[in-house]
Write a structure and sequence with these properties.
The chain is of the alpha/beta class. Helix content is 37%, strand content 14%. It is globular, with a radius of gyration of 20 Å.
């Protein structure tokens, strides 16, 4: 793979054939022999001596594990930081008088981190106050603007490209390398809390890039933003299409894969009680065995963590069509492929 110097903020940063090359590299890494446990650190891997800073503004399990393990197995050193917990609390707004409880500004922290690192990875969730502000990705864009080394998006307000890569690798493993025209359903799911649109947005971007027949199912008021749908359609090759459904069963019929994910509606950002009431009105959107059976031998996907018997039933998660744990495991291999893509293999 050719060494790259640009950021990886979204799948759009893998234009043309690059997305396929990264997925192919991930598949190659997955099939290869596991490296023996080293006696020291770092190991003499293709990224030996490289340093990667992982900055988590929000909690993580799969992302942190996959990034740290991927860096380690490639010979790089990864250090995870949680601002406000094990490092200084960061102010993220520009032009403010810092007389509050934040001791350091994001700009200063990122400039210092970039001086010591070969790459910076950052996770920051949506504010869920203004959908246009979330789509603008203020914190992620600020990090990218201030870093002189590649920046990796470990989930942001409106995107999760590392998860999308694992989703696509799983779909290719299960349904074949050529996903053109393959029907897949992205369905809204009930949840006790309003959640960001990062994962559904990333999945939509990925499935559309593969030219799939994407069905997006959501009850009235919970539709994905039109601008996101337009963006995905613009990137879709010939043979793919995106359709929206208010009837979940119609979207599921004949689908080869079902991706269930909760997301909040911008209509209720300013009224949490109204949002909760609206979500409760659609509690029947839980994915069940009966709904999964509407598909064509459909597999079930989810990014995890998942609320059992709210988003999806135990029977589906513990059943033979569930692929969420394979999907989660693929996070390791796609993370490693991204690191190689950005930092380059040393021969």
């Amino acid at each position: 793979m050719t060494p790259m110097t640009h950021h990886f903020l979204s799948l759009a940063d893998l234009p043309g054939v690059q997305l396929g090359l990264v997925l192919a590299k991930a598949a190659e890494l997955k099939k290869g022999p596991r490296m023996p446990a080293p006696s020291g650190f770092p190991i003499a891997g293709p990224l030996h001596g490289r340093r990667i800073a992982l900055v988590f503004f929000n909690p993580s399990l799969r992302t942190r594990l996959s990034m740290e393990f991927a860096a380690h197995m490639l010979g790089a050193q990864a250090v995870a930081l949680s601002p406000g917990a094990d490092s200084w609390k960061l102010e993220t707004r520009r032009g403010v008088v810092m007389d509050g409880d934040a001791q350091e500004h994001l700009v200063d922290a990122i400039r210092v981190i970039a001086e010591m690192s070969d790459a910076v990875a950052v996770r920051t969730f949506a504010g869920l106050r203004d959908v246009e502000e979330d789509r603008a990705e203020p914190i992620l864009r600020a990090v990218a603007a201030e870093s002189k080394v590649p920046v990796i998006n470990m989930e942001s307000a409106f995107d999760h490209p590392l998860q999308a890569l694992a989703d696509l690798l799983t779909l290719r493993e299960e349904l074949g390398r050529d996903l053109t025209g393959v029907p897949v359903t992205l369905t809204w799911a009930p949840h006790p809390k309003a959640l960001p649109m990062a994962v559904p947005a990333a999945f939509l971007r990925g499935a559309s890039r593969m030219g799939m027949d994407v069905r997006v199912a959501a009850p009235p008021g919970f539709e994905l933003p039109a601008a996101l749908l337009d963006e995905a359609r613009a990137a879709m090759p010939q043979g793919g299409r995106i359709r929206t459904f208010e009837n979940q069963a119609d979207a599921l019929r004949g689908s080869r894969a079902v991706y269930a994910k909760a997301w909040g509606s911008p209509l209720f950002y300013a009224d949490a009680e109204a949002g909760l009431a609206a979500r409760k009105r659609h509690s029947d959107w839980t994915t069940t065995e009966q709904k999964l059976a509407l598909g064509d031998r459909a597999i079930f996907l989810h990014c995890l963590p998942v609320r059992r018997n709210v988003v999806v039933t135990d029977e589906v998660l513990d059943g033979p069509r569930c692929r969420v744990y394979q999907e989660a495991g693929n996070r390791l291999h796609t993370a490693a492929a991204v690191l190689l893509h950005l930092l380059g293999e040393r021969k």
